[in-house]
Design goal:
The complex is a heterodimer of chains A (about 290) and B (about 425).
Chain A: E1 22-24, H1 35-40, H2 42-56, H3 66-85, H4 95-122, H5 124-129, H6 136-143, H7 145-162, H8 174-198, H9 201-215, H10 230-233, H11 238-251, H12 258-289
Helix pairs in contact in A: 2-6, 3-4, 3-7, 4-6, 4-7, 4-8, 4-9, 4-11, 6-8, 8-9, 8-11, 8-12, 11-12
Chain B: E1 4-16, H1 27-47, E2 59-71, E3 75-79, H2 86-93, E4 101-106, E5 110-113, H3 126-136, H4 141-155, H5 170-182, E6 188-192, H6 200-215, E7 219-223, H7 227-233, E8 236-241, E9 244-250, H8 251-262, H9 265-272, E10 275-277, E11 282-290, E12 300-301, E13 306-314, E14 318-319, E15 322-329, E16 334-339, E17 349-350, E18 353-360, E19 369-377, E20 382-395
Helix pairs in contact in B: 3-4, 3-5, 4-5
The chains are: A mainly alpha (about 290), B alpha/beta (about 425).
Chain lengths: ~290, ~425
């Protein structure tokens, strides 16, 4: 042990120059994303998502059924009010399955967004006491919603059988569409969760935003209500691409959403990249402020 | 072997603690301020500048120009009062928070234990929490699987491994949490005050485990208030005060300096002006007042449970030793003596180096200054006699448990007492 220059220096010439494993120093400006490190911590990512899944429906009576109840009853309500009463068109598909096919990815997106926005604040005790790449926290909170998605999706398949709807071959695109929903919710979630550390206003703003966003997305109505070029521009809302894509792939709606999806994907990736950099930039304040 | 593991250079960390906000002058100003503030904050937020507390001027340096080096395999203690910057230092070194200035180079995989049971989830079972907590501390799944049985055995919770931890007793909970942490095997381990968990037997086990870790050639930085643990585990110790390094060096020397600093400077000079007697073949190294867990007390109050801890070192086997502490008041009158041979503590043989504690149920001294003389003999010879070994001030305390502090104007010592009206007292005729 030496105190700076006061005590003796340990054999300067003899020791080989070693690279430090890491250096602690003040950072400035924009930082690299360091995704390599996130990958190294993939087991933590897995365990945190696993914990969220395990814990989510503990001490509830209905348990995992909640994953189905939420989109299913929204579908029932939509069918009654928008389908029956308002007679909103549904691209020639039975209204219940038309809306439910949209509600399944939407619920995944909305829950992912809500949970990732709160994720850093909810993990404050971890962030203050343990080091790990902070990106792991919002990512894991979104991944844990995948189980809910699968459950709700099984109900969708059952409904398709009931309504005698055959999926098209386009179903192979489904995983990519789901990825698009995930990227969108992570992108927005990264922005919000980083802001939430500093300003708890975000917690109150997010439910409101999710609600507004739902009406801005063609869930209760088809995007075909809009004429071109507006329908394509509508894709600036990335969830438009996801929802239209789901209906196209599963229900065979004849309005292939090609250009819409391209715009949605670009916006979505833009959100993710900017969100990730913003997150990294704010990261240094997390442990002190949260 | 003497490769550097951690090199800390002028490491500084500033915290904003808020407080002085410029007062608004008029309603109009405050309204304008109130309307502008969110926009200004939003602008700063987008620029990535810290806002909120950072706008306020009041700051403290939790660490100020801290520099030191730790070599591979060294076990280094970090001591200091609460708020001296010990935990901040570990946080910065483990990358939880960034330094404001300076830099530190770390050579090797770091594991940090700043808290026992970080990330434990109440709803999960013991088994699930082992995996979760292990992953959080940076263990790989395969590593956890390999050590699983060992962890469960160490925590002594075999029967409850599949019970949710919310049903655990607090003792079981901390045992499990420590057990996971204790099986972490990084090259560099940063530990903050985690030894003080569980009952006495488990604490001993923890200390033993830490000793194993220390001997296994790993580099360890250990923050503790437990001087016994620091002394037992660390060869070198860093003493921090108000974010600065006061001293670095041999553990006993630094501990002595730290303990002295807890009391007045006058005490320190008193301790240096040693009036020692005896053969010196065994010596009392230091004396301090502590809680019953051995944590040094900065202040003692009348009626408080206090333990007097004596650190000693001997060159000869210590058979049947007797420790005596005599308490003197500020004018030099002896008040009482604590004598290990008169109470139930009959030491048959003590290790060559260690601590003995004299536990006082309830400090019966009123608010005043006192001095202690200490002596150690083994029935054959007087080994050490230290006049004015230690002095301390007792503050007014709640001795009688009534909430009223005994200020101590006329009392020398305090005695438990109950007062009552005697209604059926036998009549005594004083007349002859």
């Amino acid at each position: 042990m030496t105190i700076g220059e006061v005590r003796e220096n340990p054999a300067p010439a003899a020791s080989v120059v070693r690279q430090p494993t890491f250096v602690v120093e003040p950072s400035k400006g924009w930082l690299a994303l360091n995704l390599q490190e996130v990958w190294e911590y993939r087991e933590l990512l897995y365990f945190l998502a696993w914990r969220d899944i395990k814990v989510r429906y503990k001490q509830t009576i209905l348990g995992a059924a909640w994953a189905i109840i939420q989109p299913f009853f929204t579908m029932v309500i939509f069918s009654l009010f928008f389908g029956r009463l308002a007679k909103i068109p549904s691209d020639g598909i039975p209204y219940p399955i038309f809306s439910y096919a949209a509600l399944v990815p939407w619920t995944f997106f909305a829950n992912g967004l809500t949970q990732s926005s709160n994720s850093l604040v909810a993990s404050a005790n971890l962030i203050k006491k343990v080091y790990f790449p902070r990106l792991v926290v919002p990512i894991s909170s979104i991944l844990s919603g995948a189980v809910d998605f699968v459950l709700a999706f099984i109900v969708l398949l059952v409904m398709m059988v009931y309504f005698d709807t055959l999926p098209t071959w386009n179903i192979v695109w489904l995983p990519l569409l789901l990825l698009l929903a995930l990227v969108t919710s992570l992108g927005v979630g990264l922005w919000f969760t980083a802001m939430n550390v500093q300003f708890r206003d975000v917690r109150y703003a997010v439910p409101f935003l999710v609600q507004a966003w739902m009406f801005a997305t063609p869930i209760a109505y088809p995007s075909s209500l809009l004429g071109e070029p507006w329908r394509t521009l509508y894709g600036i809302n990335p969830m438009v691409g996801v929802i239209e894509g789901f209906r196209w792939a599963l229900l065979g709606v004849n309005t292939a959403p090609g250009p819409v999806i391209i715009i949605s994907s670009l916006v979505s990736v833009g959100l993710l990249v900017s969100g990730a950099f913003y997150f990294r930039r704010m990261e240094k304040t997390f442990a002190d402020v949260v | 072997m003497s490769d550097v593991a951690i090199r800390v250079q002028n490491l500084s960390k500033q915290y904003h603690i808020g407080g002085t906000q410029a007062g608004y002058k008029t309603l109009r100003e405050s309204l304008v301020e109130g309307i502008q503030a969110p926009f200004r904050r939003a602008r700063k937020l987008l620029r990535g500048q810290a806002t909120g507390a950072a706008e306020l001027d009041e700051t403290i340096w939790a660490l100020k120009d801290v520099s030191f080096e730790v070599n591979e395999g060294e076990v280094v203690g970090i001591i200091g009062r609460n708020g001296a910057g010990k935990s901040t230092l570990l946080k910065v070194l483990s990358r939880i928070t960034e330094p404001t200035r300076g830099r530190a180079e770390v050579y090797g995989r770091v594991g940090s234990l700043l808290e026992v049971g970080t990330g434990f989830h109440q709803e999960l079972t013991g088994r699930e929490n082992i995996y979760l907590n292990g992953a959080i501390l940076g263990m790989k799944k395969a590593e956890i699987e390999r050590k699983f049985d060992e962890i469960v055995a160490f925590a002594e919770i075999e029967k409850f491994i599949d019970t949710p931890v919310k049903h655990y007793s607090s003792g079981m909970y901390v045992r499990l949490a420590f057990a996971v942490a204790a099986h972490l095997e990084p090259e560099i381990l940063l530990v903050d005050e985690v030894l003080a968990v569980g009952d006495v037997a488990f604490q001993k086990k923890c200390l033993g485990k830490m000793g194993d870790v220390a001997k296994s050639g790993r580099t360890v930085l250990l923050v503790s208030h437990n001087m016994g643990a620091i002394d037992a585990l660390c060869e070198t110790t860093v003493f921090l005060e108000q974010g600065k390094v006061v001293d670095i060096g041999q553990t006993p020397v630094v501990i002595q300096q730290y303990l002295s600093s807890l009391y007045d400077i006058a005490d320190y000079s008193l301790q240096n002006r040693v009036d020692r007697g005896g053969s010196g073949r065994a010596k009392i190294n230091y004396i301090y007042l502590a809680t019953s867990d051995g944590l040094p007390l900065q202040q003692v109050l009348s009626g408080q449970e206090v333990m007097i801890v004596i650190g000693y070192e001997s060159q000869i086997p210590l058979n049947h030793p007797t420790f005596k502490l005599t308490v003197y008041n500020n004018v030099g009158q002896p008040l009482t003596q604590f004598d290990s041979s008169l109470t139930n503590a009959l030491f048959i043989q003590l290790p060559l180096r260690g601590y003995v504690g004299c536990q006082l149920g309830k400090l019966p001294l009123s608010a005043r200054r006192y001095r202690l003389h200490a002596s150690l003999d083994n029935g054959v010879e007087l080994l050490d006699h230290w006049t004015g070994a230690y002095s301390f001030t007792v503050g007014p305390g709640n001795y009688y448990g009534t909430g009223r502090n005994v200020v101590g104007l006329k009392d020398v010592c305090l005695v438990d007492q109950t007062w009552q009206l005697l209604e059926n007292a036998p009549e005594v005729h004083w007349s002859v």
